[in-house]
Design brief:
Blueprint (H helix, E strand, L loop, with lengths): L15 H6 L11 H12 L4 H14 L5 H13 L3 H8 L10 H13 L5 H12 L9 H11 L2 H13 L6 H13 L4 H10 L5 H13 L3 H13 L6 H14 L2 H13 L6 H13 L3 H10 L5 H13 L3 H13 L6 H13 L3 H15 L5 H13 L3 H10 L6 H13 L3 H14 L4 H14 L2 H14 L7 E6 L2 E6 L8 H17 L15 H9 L2 H12 L6 E5 L5 H13 L4 E4 L4 E5 L2 E2 L6
This protein binds one DNA strand of 10 nucleotides through α2, α4, α6, α8 and α10.
DNA sequence: TGCGAAACAT
């Protein structure tokens, strides 16, 4: 079915003064609810596009297009069917602007604020309403603010804030809560959000959740968890949405113990187990290292959405259990769930992390052929990763050259890593140099080139990179590893000596080094990003945050218990090799989450098969 | 004359 859509921006050309003076048609219908009620009832239940189109005809035939209530319900119905422009073509075919009221406009604004289309449309109709001389009601503002949040436009948000104060709606808690949320979403808006939050006379669970979610989205997960504690102290009862936000902070921190506590809290307090909450739990367990628990929860869910399936597939992929991920994907299709783009990203990354090259290729083509999904840059990225990991560097490069969209720096970096691992050093060097020209302020581009020179054993070039970076004032992301112990998260950052057990930890690190050397470990110094001699390199390696965290765990946890750590970057080659030795020497399972996946070290082996 | 807020998978 085809609809002709009136594009919002064309509406600028409507002469509003003319509209206002035109005679009102069908005046008789305006105030008689009984006449329009059947039409409203049908609109309420309208759930398909053909029905909507039929109603459209009826509305015109009956002259209801001048009835604001009918227009409003038609707009809601269209919005539910993701066909807002269709409603707009009806609404703005009206000849007399006097049928427009604040309720109709707040419905239009809502439709655009909640749609996947440009949030600018919502702002446009807000301004259009003002242009018509219609005073907004307070119900419009949560949606106008939602649009500002979607646009992440702080200045716009501030302007709307000023305007709603002028209309006197700033004492409404719904409006206040949405303002907190809006400021949390805008870049640079956190301080405004926090100020509002701190000054609000009454905080309900929604206010707290908006603020907690704000910290979580910014990656300030520890702050989010801290605020959740304050919420409990304040005696405000968290609800299901609060738990979802807190769980996503746990997931980010890799805080399995806290996550388990939240799960038991949910059970104890009988928090409503929505499908979103179950999904958040599944995701948390998978990303905090207990993928079997995630699978168990997933199996017990009475209702599953595409998000549930994707979470568990991605979880398995991260743990290197690609075959299980693939079979779950097949099970998902068999259950009638239609996979969409994100599910394929999870699936392709599962193939990639488990070396399932042929499967990956098949799924990539099935995605388009069978499901009509146009591959996005992330899908191409997965394929480059898949080919690169498998050592098919030339094919990966050809794949990139044939891509119909511009490759992004992530794809180039994947290729460069592959070049280093598989010995295509000259190629890696030239791609690196090109990438540095395009993206001169990105630290990892230099690290990659430096590692290539390390493998070439070209120390002179390697040290030049460090000088170049210093000159450009490039910010380095320090490696950091987190570990949870007794309801506390300990973070170890390279070069940070502030931990109160620092001296003991260093002693332990040195002891670990001696034991490992006795067992045949040789430090991998080619990746050290410092211009220093070999002995100091070893020293620098032994201070890596991963090793500090493992030493801390060996000192503070019972013998034989598993060690779970979370690293912010990808695990370095030396720490990976050292972890294998440590797992055997100290008889510990080490579960390490790095930026891209999990490594389960056990008895001298890693689940990633040394491929990550 | 009808209406509103916070959350999950890359």
């Amino acid at each position: 079915m085809r609809f002709s859509y009136l594009k919002p921006r064309l509406l600028h050309s409507i002469n509003t003064s003319k509209l206002k003076t035109t005679t009102l048609h069908h005046q008789s219908n305006m105030n008689h609810r009984a006449v329009e009620q059947p039409c409203l009832d049908i609109l309420q239940a309208c759930n398909t596009l053909p029905k909507l189109a039929q109603l459209h005809t009826h509305i015109i035939k009956l002259g209801f297009q001048n009835n604001p209530l009918v227009l409003t319900k038609f707009t809601s119905a269209s919005s539910n069917l993701d066909a807002i422009p269709y409603a707009m073509s009806l609404v703005f075919s009206v000849e007399d602007a006097r049928v427009y009221d604040a309720f109709l406009f707040s419905t239009i604004i809502r439709a655009y604020a909640e749609s996947s289309q440009s949030k600018h449309n919502a702002i446009f109709y807000y301004n259009l309403m003002l242009g018509y001389g219609i005073s907004p009601n307070k119900y419009a503002f949560p949606f106008v603010l939602k649009a500002c949040a979607g646009l992440r436009d702080l200045n716009l948000g501030k302007a709307v804030h000023g305007s709603l104060v002028k209309f006197g709606f700033d004492d409404d808690i719904f409006v206040q809560n949405t303002m907190v949320h809006m400021y949390c979403c805008c870049s640079g808006g956190m301080e405004f959000a926090r100020k509002l939050f701190d000054e609000m006379p009454k905080l309900d669970p929604v206010t707290w959740t908006a603020m907690i979610g704000g910290y979580a989205r910014l990656g300030q997960s520890a702050g989010a968890v801290g605020l959740f504690r304050k919420m409990q102290i304040a005696g405000v009862c968290p609800d299901d949405v609060t738990m979802v936000s807190v769980l996503s902070a746990c997931t980010d921190l890799g805080a399995l113990e806290l996550g388990k506590w939240i799960e038991s809290y949910i059970e104890k307090e009988r928090v409503l187990k929505t499908v979103e909450l179950s999904n958040a739990l599944v995701d948390m367990f998978a990303k905090c290292g207990d993928v079997d628990k995630a699978l168990g929860l997933f199996r017990n869910m009475s209702k599953r959405t595409i998000v549930s399936w994707t979470s568990v597939i991605v979880g398995l992929a991260m743990h290197g259990r690609g075959l299980e991920a693939v079979s779950l994907f097949e099970e998902m299709k068999a259950s009638g769930m239609v996979p969409e783009d994100i599910a394929f990203i999870g699936l392709l990354s599962a193939c990639s992390h488990s070396g399932l090259v042929e499967r990956g290729r098949q799924y990539f083509s099935e995605m388009t052929r069978q499901f009509g999904i146009v591959p996005k840059i992330e899908h191409y990225g997965c394929m480059v990763d898949l080919l690169s990991r498998a050592g098919l560097v030339t094919e990966a490069l050809e794949f990139v050259e044939r891509m119909p969209i511009e490759p992004n720096p992530i794809i180039w970096r994947t290729l460069i890593s592959a070049c280093r691992v598989h010995g295509e050093l000259k190629l890696g060097e030239s791609i690196s140099k090109q990438l540095i020209r395009n993206e001169p302020m990105h630290e990892s581009n230099y690290v990659l080139l430096s590692n290539i020179y390390g493998k070439m054993l070209d120390w002179e070039k390697k040290s030049k990179i460090r000088v170049a970076m210093g000159k450009k004032g490039i910010q380095k992301v320090p490696g950091s590893t987190m570990i949870e112990l007794d309801n506390e998260i300990h973070e170890f950052i390279v070069g940070d000596r502030s931990h109160n057990q620092y001296n003991e930890i260093i002693k332990m690190v040195n002891e670990m080094g001696r034991e490992m050397k006795r067992a045949g470990y040789a430090p991998t110094t080619t990746e050290v990003f410092l211009d220093i001699d070999e002995e100091d390199k070893e020293d620098a390696l032994s201070r890596h945050s991963e090793k500090l965290a493992i030493a801390f765990a060996l000192l503070n946890t019972p013998p034989g218990s598993p060690i779970r750590i979370t690293k912010n970057l990808r695990v370095c080659g030396d720490c990976h090799s050292a972890s294998k030795f440590i797992s055997k020497i100290y008889n510990r399972e080490i579960v390490m989450r790095d930026r891209s996946r999990f490594h389960h070290f056990r008895d001298g082996q890693c689940s990633c098969g040394d491929f990550w």
